[in-house]
Design brief:
single chain; alpha/beta; FAD/NAD(P)-binding domain; D-Amino Acid Oxidase, Chain A, domain 2; 8-stranded mixed sheet; 18 strands
């Protein structure tokens, strides 16, 4: 099929910026670039009909990190980097609330909680960790107590195998699809072109312009390129430290008198669940099969789904056996690496990237996008 003059001059004209990936990072980046310079001609290209990584395939958490995750991160990447990433996440959640109404994206701060099973950590050590984290996080959250021990809520929620419950009132959840749709409408209203079903197959970077080959019968050219493809970035930038990680999820049928609301974690964040109205949305168990889950294959597996169903029955809903069914199963592909710090950098003179969100792209994306937009020339 040949391109018409109207198409050539409207959709395929030379761009100031092309962004690959229309997930949260790509759209937030377009937003901040347009805010910085409204005259920029920006096109966002997406290989799927909708974003095909994790932006619309997650659990919809509005989280900056569970206590055990932050303790582990401080041990593995150092306290300073842990705090830097945590602050980015916290600021990102504030940015989302700044630009979008709570009803618009179903944003609710019902609280974030972490479950601790028996023999995971002593009560004394857990109290030490809470006090230490609260001291470290106070400059970030402005809360005297970011975390608190909330064991009195365990029986009320009906959780099994749970000795301790840690609460933060600063977390909750949102509707990831509604947030992405609202963000898409916002950037399109600013004059950004978003094109789906287009895969970039090759990048040819000359001294003056960047030529982008596609899987269609047309190519793009641009002055600057921003890669926001997260777990799928190695096909375009193979040198980056990125490991894909499949996150599998299940959703129950409605449950009468579901006794809890909020966003819950356990096992350093490897299990996570929330109520979706009166249903339970549960994901995780990746730590049961790290090697198998380091994949870009979206197919769910019997092994991980069985692990999730076991956790659902034994920990989340031990008093609701035979009172629910599993209605949906799906997966999203996250991006991890040797550490949890996002990769936000200039790859070459005209090519930039903002990738590796480590499973917390909802919160990180507004801050990461503003960082990379600041690096790019007007």
């Amino acid at each position: 099929m040949q391109v018409s003059i109207w198409e050539k001059e409207t959709f395929f004209a030379h761009q100031d910026v092309v962004i690959i990936g229309s997930g949260f990072v790509g759209l937030w980046s377009a937003f901040y670039l347009k805010k910085k310079n409204p005259k920029l001609k920006i096109t966002v290209v997406e290989r799927g009909v909708i974003p095909s990584g994790a932006s619309t395939r997650n659990a919809g958490f509005a989280t900056f990190g569970s206590l055990s995750e932050l303790v582990w991160d401080a041990q593995t990447m150092g306290t300073d980097k842990m705090l830097e990433v945590t602050e980015m996440r916290f600021k990102g959640l504030q940015r989302i609330q700044k630009y979008f109404g709570k009803k618009e994206i179903d944003f609710d701060l019902f609280g974030g909680y972490e479950l601790y099973e028996e023999n995971i950590v002593s009560t004394e050590k857990l109290k030490e960790n809470i006090a230490y984290a609260n001291t470290l996080l106070k400059p970030i959250t402005s809360a005297k107590k970011t975390y608190r021990l909330a064991d009195e809520k365990i029986s009320e929620a009906g959780f099994g195998k749970t000795k301790h419950l840690v609460e933060t009132k600063l977390e909750g959840y949102l509707h990831a699809g509604k947030l992405l749709q609202a963000l898409l409408q916002k950037v399109q209203g600013m004059g950004v072109t978003v094109m789906t079903g287009i895969e970039i197959t090759n990048i040819n970077n000359t001294d003056k312009i960047i030529e982008l080959a596609t899987n269609q019968l047309f190519n793009f050219s641009t002055d600057q390129l921003l890669v926001c493809t997260n777990a799928f970035t190695k096909t375009l930038l193979p040198e980056l430290d990125i490991v894909p990680a499949r996150g599998q999820v299940l959703l129950t049928s409605p449950i009468k008198n579901l006794p809890f609301k909020g966003a819950f974690h356990s096992d350093e964040g490897f299990y996570y669940f929330r109520n979706l109205d009166n249903r339970v949305l549960l994901g995780g168990a990746r730590n049961k099969a790290f090697a198998d889950e380091a994949t870009t294959d979206f197919q769910t597996t019997d092994f991980i789904q069985r692990e999730l169903e076991k956790y659902l029955a034994e920990v989340i809903l031990p008093h609701f056996q035979n009172l629910y069914a599993i209605e949906q199963r799906w997966s999203g592909i996250m991006a991890f690496g040797s550490e949890k710090m996002p990769i936000v950098k200039q790859v070459s003179d005209n090519i930039f990237c903002a990738v590796r969100m480590s499973g917390v792209g909802v919160a990180l994306s507004p801050v990461v996008a503003q960082q990379v937009a600041g690096m790019m020339r007007d």
